[in-house]
Amino acid sequence: MYMNGQKAIKKKNEYLQLLNQNDLEQVYQSYLENNTMFIPREFEQNHGIHFCTVFRKLPLSSDYKPDFVYLAKSSDNWNVVLVEIEKPSSKYFKNNSTTFHADFNMALQQMNTWRAWIDDESNRNHLKNNILQGFIEPAHMARNPFNFKYVLVHGRRSEYENNVQKTSLIRSQQRDDFSIISFDSLAENIERKYPLYIAVKKNTHFELISSEFVDEGIFSWVNTDLLAISKEIRDDAISKSANWHHYKFSEKGSVKVMDDVLPKIRII
Hints:
By secondary structure, the protein is of the alpha/beta class. The chain is built from eight helices and eleven strands. It has a nine-stranded mixed beta sheet.
C-alpha cells in the first residue's frame, strides 16, 4: 500500500512539475484526489485518519464546503480537520515587501469564516449529528469531544524560505489549531503515507469515489445502507480478497467481513 522509493521519487517529480504549471485550483484538487499520498496529514492522531477516508467538498452548509475534511481519533477525542487548498501561484506577500498579498489575506479570511461557523454550537451539533451521522464509529466514541482544526495549503515555499522575517510573519498567523503549509510540503515523505479513500457526502449516504481498495475499516463499522462505492473499489477489493483479515460472527460462524458486506453495498 505504501509507495516504494523509486516510484515515490517519480511521483514526487511529477507533482512538482505540475506545481510549476500554475493551473487553476481545481486541477490541483483533482490531482490530490487521484494521488492521495499528497493530501495533508496535519493533526493526525495515533489512530490515523479515520477509516482512511477524506471527504471532498463536505457541505457544512450551503455556503461552506471545505476542499477536504477528515477525522482523526485518539482513544479519548477526535480531531475534525478542515483543509483549504489555494493555488501554487497564490502569493503570500506583495512584490518586494513584507506586506501580505491579497491572496493570503483572502485565504486567512476564509479560515476565519469557517472558524466562526464552527464556533456556533448548533453548527457543531449539526455537523456531528447530521452530516457525519453513521460515520462516527464505533458509536460509543461519538461521546468523545471534537476538536476542530484548520489547514491552509497556499503558495510555494520559495517565496519565503530564505527570508527569516517573511517566514516569521507567516508563522505568526498560525495557531495551535491552525497550520499553514506550502504546496511543496505536500511532497515530503510521500513514501511513508498510506493511500486514502475520497468520499462524497450525499443526502442519505456516503459515496467512496476512489479507484483503489485501501482498507477494510469503513466496511467493518459503517452500516452498508449508508455506503455506496465505485465499481473500481469493488473490483480491486475482490482482487485483494486474499488479504482480507477482518472477521465477524454470524449464524454461519466466523466469516470475513468483506465476504458478508461487499454484495450488499450499492455500486455507483
